[in-house]
Write a structure and sequence with these properties.
2 copies of one chain form a homodimer.
Chain A (H helix, E strand, L loop, with lengths): L14 H24 L6 H8 L3 H4 L6 H25 L6 H18 L1 H8 L10 H8 L1 H15 L15 H14 L5 H22 L11 H16 L5
Chain A binds a DNA duplex through helix 1, helix 2 and helix 3.
DNA sequence: CGAACGTCAAGAGCAGTGCTCTCAATTGTT
DNA sequence: AACAATTGAGAGCACTGCTCTTGACGTTCG
């Protein structure tokens, strides 16, 4: 068979190819369940094989290795998160930049709380010995941050982001070069200091979510975690440049 | 844990007890090295036993289980980070609250960059199947945040924190109750909105560090990572209430 | 001084893991 | 129906955490 035919299952004509695709999908589904219940590092191909009702070696017909399955689950999770964020952002009207920003933040937190193990796979400590293949994970892995950047840039172009405060922290030259590269690469209009603040907003958003999901707050402190997160979101919105309102 | 082992060593009379304490310390040291090179989830008691020049079952004379060793390493890492932070903060004069805040942040980042695996153990995705015994990890695990809270509270009492802006985000009642409990529990003077902002500063600090250590920035974006982090620290200082300058 | 005791390392063994290999059976295609 | 591609089963290797038994050692006490 030609290599071209093996690509993104655009064909799927023969029953064999369809059965194969379904088996791979089953493996990913079972892997996702194991991931949710036992965590990434405890993901076991043998356990997946047992649940599939098949001997362990048979799984290797469909998935090259444990790392390969991890990559599939990584892409699967990134896309699931990206879909959730896109749906939440898309539910707000196009001009409601602040609403879109808040929707994005809340969607990330909700997905993370609902899927702690998968969130941990994406944003927790890297799995030892596993190196994600950039070519397959980069696109799905950047969906959320690109969405965030898009919202902020659109808001800036619409004049809804306050200009950077005059007493803002100075941006050193090396950092300015990095920020220029980002702006050029993404075709942004926002100035340096707002890009820098945007990066902080980005990392802070996931920092707040990670603390909650990874249990860094004690078990007792902060019962009103959603309120706390929404308060953080409001402050971060101000940091991103949104005017209070 | 090194200090504790040394202290225990000094307190123990019989040669047997001292040899035992030294062996436990050796196991922790080897475990720390394995942690640094292979990651937490790949920590193997058998590998530690090999490096110790001993058969695998022998280490169970000194460490009850893999989880027990994990706990020892957790406490060891928490204290190492706490020591680094205390040293950096203590190097600034007592009245230099802003300097102490920046020193804390830089110390956390430096330790994390130097010890990525141990940082991942403390602040990354939880090790599956392992539950840290709160009684043994709570005290060392709260050293950094208590140091941070102390700095901010001292600065507020000295009148060096700007009063919360009038247009700050509203604090809902349930969250206010949580914040009141925190203030009462720690004997703080700072008002609600500054505590809330302090929590955000806390999570954002570790969010920024985690993104860098866990490789969430791409391999190419941001070459001037120290500049980026210092910029973030400046912005976070403003968020905490420090006046610019 | 010798015996009892506490401690220790070693080894075998159980159940689990990732992964490779061979072999037979099934299946789709020709 | 015949052929070839594909698949599942099973054995096997090296590894893991952990338990149990055995034999050896050193200390301590009668």
């Amino acid at each position: 068979m030609t290599d071209a035919a093996t690509n993104a299952d655009a064909g799927l004509r023969t029953p064999r190819e369809r059965a194969r695709a379904r088996t791979v999908a089953d493996i990913v589904r079972l892997g996702r369940e194991h991931l949710a219940t036992h965590g990434a590092a405890a993901l076991s191909l043998r356990a997946v094989a047992r649940d599939l009702g098949v001997v362990s070696s048979a799984v290797y017909r469909y998935v090259a290795s444990r790392d390969e399955l991890l990559t599939l689950l990584l892409v699967d999770a990134y896309n699931d998160l990206g879909d959730a964020v896109d749906a939440a952002v898309g539910a707000k009207s196009e001009g409601d930049f602040s609403g879109r920003f808040h929707a994005l933040g809340l969607a990330v937190r909700e997905w993370a709380v609902r899927e702690p193990a998968r969130y941990g796979l994406l944003f927790g400590s890297p799995v030892p010995g596993y190196r994600a293949p950039a070519g397959r994970t980069e696109a799905p892995g950047t969906r959320v941050v690109y969405s965030l950047v898009g919202i902020l840039d659109d808001a800036y172009r619409a004049g809804e982001l306050a200009p950077p405060p005059a007493d803002a922290a100075v941006v050193p030259p090396a950092l300015a070069a990095d920020l220029d590269a980002v702006r050029a690469g993404l075709g942004l209009a926002v100035p340096d200091s707002l890009i820098a603040n945007g990066v902080l907003v980005w990392t802070s958003l996931f920092g707040a979510v990670s603390f909650e999901v990874f249990g860094q707050y004690g078990p007792d402190t902060f019962k009103a975690r959603e309120d706390l997160f929404e308060h953080h979101l409001h402050v971060l919105a101000g940091l991103a440049g949104f005017r209070r309102g």
